[in-house]
């Protein structure tokens, strides 16, 4: 836009000079003529004034076209090449576009050759650096795996309470009820969003005053989970001794670590146990008193009649039976409490069967195959003890009935899963099966005090023997609790993040920041961002179009955190135009049963808390959010950056600022377009590539980026 303004100014100046020259020529010619000649010239000009003006107009147009062509050839094309070269400095894989005169194309080709050579050198240096850092990276990833698999939740923070590391267990403990799971916990977020600031401050101060290396406190989550939290200080690098660690609780503190244990089930089981003991005590007082009174009566009235003796024995029997029933009931309930405390884990049933196949084959001369295994069934079991039970049964089948071929089958039936150990050719009696279930297990010299029945009961299931006379097959069936659909989905989601463990931490966040500055004065590289996009029913927010999907990702410390994404479909409570479905592919069936916008926006507002919003053509998305403020009471008052406007700042001479064009210009592959999360990820990658280019233009702070965006021509667009 600046170059076009300069072109128009140049044309205006040229036309002004042309008119001035014509007027000056007319004045010189007219001043040299006599009176009659001047009158004759004036009459000729008056008669031919239209033709003169037409000639002047044509001359101006011709001059404009000539200047425009010269401007395009001499100014715009070199300016575009210069912009592409600036982008190429930050993204070595991009190349300049061949355009312009042969001389300019020769220069572009030479620059591309230099860039290729420079890229080869950088790749060689990068390969050497990667090889040199391989050992450190391996150690770091091993540490990440270790932290991820700990049974306790772990959160590490810098002194300001910003989260710089967390593991899967912590993530699961603070997962949101909406299914997003990341509204409260995430890299760069404040831990004070999940724990009261005063609890942590008290723990740290108590460590300092009492010279302790750690301190516990108890907290309750929004979902009602009871947590036991250990807070331990992380001293400065210089404080590596035990004394320094103790002192680190106060002075020289570079951060602190919290280890979180979920005490809910333990507390509930202990409460149930106490309640059982209390109930047993209270309910036993009456029968025990009656039995004592009966004993005294029997002592005092030894000569009672037969009828009195019969009634007396009936009372004693009733009280004794009642007391025995109460004790038996309490014993069963207490056994259930103990069973619920047995450590169980969620796992794929297919994984358990694969392990069973290998374990049975290692310990018995039996061929084991998998038959009709439902790969989508998740179960919650103690895998090791269940493997022992299956191996034990397989060994007895081989030793006592010479069974050499077994099959394992897995299926789901409602809330339970069936695991079948199948063989053919031999049936056995019910008494034999009962004996096998109640005998202590011994396989290949490994003895266990547990029985098959113990293992099954501890896993909250059942086992029985079943035969099919028609097919001449028999099998032991293990009936085990299956994980519900929602729990299985969370388990799969947790498993899907295995390759993103390194993104669960960022030790660069230990570095201090100038948090006391006004937000507009903060450096762009120091800020946390939420990059978002919406899919809608149409392009007119003020005419009744609605949001049908919101997708977002976070950027912290110049890193794109894909695993902390937000992706939610929204019921627009109106029909979907067919033309919009062709663009985003979201159908009415996909939106059926999804939450409405008034339920989604509060969750999304919590997700974007304390971050700068980023979007492409942000005015469009923000208009939809603004129109919902009155109805939902949710206001998105965070600062906003628009990659569309920033592109106009960085590349003012480029014809297109569409997201695909910018991505291609910066060497970014575009995948998953016209899905909210897909567009958000592409926009985030574009924005990260823009940050160093903005710095090269002298734009370092948030305020400078916003001011430069507002000065562009495209900032006038309204929806």
Which terms would index this structure?
24 helices; alpha+beta; five-stranded antiparallel beta sheet; Helix Hairpins; Beta-Lactamase; 19 strands; 719 residues; 18% strand; single chain; 5 domains; 52% helix; five-stranded mixed beta sheet
Please provide a written account of the structure.
This protein has 719 residues and is α+β, with helices and mostly antiparallel strands. It has five domains: 2-129, no CATH class; 137-262, 2-Layer Sandwich (Beta-Lactamase); 267-340, Orthogonal Bundle (Helix Hairpins), CATH 1.10.287; 345-481, Heat Shock Protein 90; 513-716, Ribonuclease H-like superfamily/Ribonuclease H (Nucleotidyltransferase, domain 5, 2-Layer Sandwich). 52% of the residues lie in helices and 18% in strands. The chain is built from 24 helices and 19 strands. It has a five-stranded antiparallel beta sheet with strand order 2-1-5-4-3. A five-stranded mixed beta sheet has the order 7-9-10-14-13, covered by helices on one side. Strands 17-16-15-18-19 form a five-stranded mixed beta sheet, sandwiched between helices. 27% of the residues are buried. The model is unreliable at 177-182, 238-251 and 485-503 (pLDDT under 50).
